[in-house]
Design goal:
Radius of gyration: 21 Å
Distance between the termini: 41 Å
Strand order of the largest sheet: 1-2
Order of helices and strands: HHHEEHHHHHHHHHH
Strand content: under 5%
Number of helices: 13
Oligomer: single chain
Helix content: 55-70%
Largest sheet: 2 strands, antiparallel
Number of strands: 2
Length: about 300
């Protein structure tokens, strides 16, 4: 009975999200936008236009964008070649949804240009799927701590409706946030399983996930710090590290190789685009540490 309740609770959360978005927030047609278009453009560039230097955007005509809005400032010049400053991790997660949308567009009256309504809607369904996946592994993780099912349901509902996640389902489904939530939650579950049981397969899955977390949004590599939350004190952590490196060195080496194989997608992509293995697509964008905006960050309406 408990198992069925937990499954039903996730279904209730997803249905609630769908009801809220459709009945109260309104259906959004344009979901591939702003930063999200940069993350997404790898898919049509690879599978439709066969142009990872994105020259096709100079002449592309679509129903949703005017000519100036295609690049949105995210196409940069490096070594005389045009590159996308955003990272390709989310586009890999979207690939099955993009493929479904493309097949549907080819067999319908919609334009199979990578940007018409079926492609826009596929991103919404992708966000819903990865939200569900994140909630599923959030439940699995909380069960490891023997949290009561009613409390788990409440946490799932609050995570979804009382945080910006709802915005990143309905309005900004093409941004990285929902997918980061999902990947980091799944990583947290498997790394906890490895800490608890020392099963190499859990470590290998964790390495795969942290690799994808990195190529989705490199700053999310900080999520590896969740490991420290699973120990009661520093000595327990220290003993675990010593024992792991002394007894599981082979497994750790394989996990490192898995992580490196995943993140090698980036230098290989950059080499294909520019003949350089390492580039910085953001160029002169960055933080001004000599002019901190503490008040605006903490209290201003701009803090989001």
């Amino acid at each position: 009975m408990k198992k069925y309740f937990l499954w039903i609770s996730e279904i209730i959360v997803i249905i609630t999200v769908l009801l809220v978005t459709n009945n109260y927030l309104g259906n959004q047609e344009l979901l591939i936008k702003a930063d999200g278009k940069g993350y997404y453009d790898y898919l049509p560039a690879t599978f439709i236009y066969h142009d990872l230097n994105f020259k096709y955007t100079d002449t592309l005509q679509t129903d949703y964008y005017d000519q100036k809005s295609y690049s949105g400032g995210y196409l940069k010049q490096v070594n005389g070649k045009q590159i996308n400053k955003y990272f390709p991790g989310v586009s890999i997660l979207w690939a099955p949804f993009f493929a479904s949308a493309h097949i549907y567009a080819l067999n319908s009256d919609y334009t199979a240009d990578g940007y018409s309504y079926p492609y826009q809607k596929s991103i919404f369904f992708a966000a819903i799927f990865y939200l569900w996946l994140g909630l599923l592994y959030l439940r699995k993780l909380l069960l490891e701590f023997h949290i009561h099912p009613i409390s788990i349901f409440a946490v799932q509902l609050l995570f979804t409706l009382a945080t910006p996640l709802l915005n990143y389902i309905q309005f900004d489904a093409s941004f990285t946030h929902t997918y980061s939530f999902s990947l980091i939650t799944i990583f947290s579950f498997y790394i906890f399983k490895y800490i608890k049981h020392q099963h190499p397969i859990s470590l290998f899955i964790s390495a795969l996930l942290i690799g994808f977390i990195t190529i989705v949004r490199p700053v999310n590599l900080m999520s590896i710090g969740v490991v420290f939350l699973f120990f009661d004190c520093f000595n327990e952590l220290k003993n675990w590290i010593i024992n792991t490196f002394s007894q599981q060195f082979k497994s750790l080496s394989i996990a490192l190789l898995i992580f490196l194989l995943v993140i090698s997608i980036l230098p290989l992509l950059w080499w294909y685009q520019t003949d350089h293995f390492f580039i910085w697509g953001y160029q002169n964008e960055g933080f001004n540490f000599f002019s901190p905006e503490f008040f605006n960050f903490l209290f201003s309406f701009k803090r989001g």
